[in-house]
Specification:
2 helices, 5-stranded mixed β-sheet, 28% helix, Nucleotidyltransferase, domain 5, alpha/beta
Length: 124
């Protein structure tokens, strides 16, 4: 039987018993696609990152694709106040890394809420 080192533990899975919310969204160009990393926090202070590679190079379509994926999981309850930024390696200056893309935030939230509503309707 394999032993674990003291202090090492498996990461907590995304479970329906723990509600998660989207905190931040980072975009990175990967060739002709956009990779979207969603940073999730739960009600017990846990943190998880989910990565989705959108089948497009359009950032608006990419965040909408990611929002559908995240909201469709069923245990992510909110995306309000989620910040959308381009990843650090995509920025040309240190200041660029701090700039939020409010248009993409609105697109992400709209698609997330729409998908979450559809999921909840199916569960009824």
């Amino acid at each position: 039987m394999a032993r674990r080192r003291a202090g090492a533990h498996a990461p907590e899975p995304l479970r329906a018993t723990s509600m998660w919310r989207v905190d931040q969204v980072f975009l990175t160009r990967r060739g002709v696609r956009v990779e979207v990393v969603c940073s999730l926090v739960n009600d017990r202070g846990g943190l998880r990152n989910l990565t989705v590679t959108a089948p497009t190079e359009n950032p608006v379509e990419a965040v909408r694709h990611a929002a559908r994926f995240i909201a469709g999981r069923g245990n992510v309850s909110s995306a309000r106040q989620a910040r959308v930024r381009w990843a650090r390696e995509q920025s040309t200056t240190a200041q660029d890394a701090l700039i939020r893309d409010r248009l993409l935030e609105d697109e992400f939230l709209d698609e997330f809420e729409e998908t979450l509503s559809a999921v909840r309707d199916q569960q009824r």
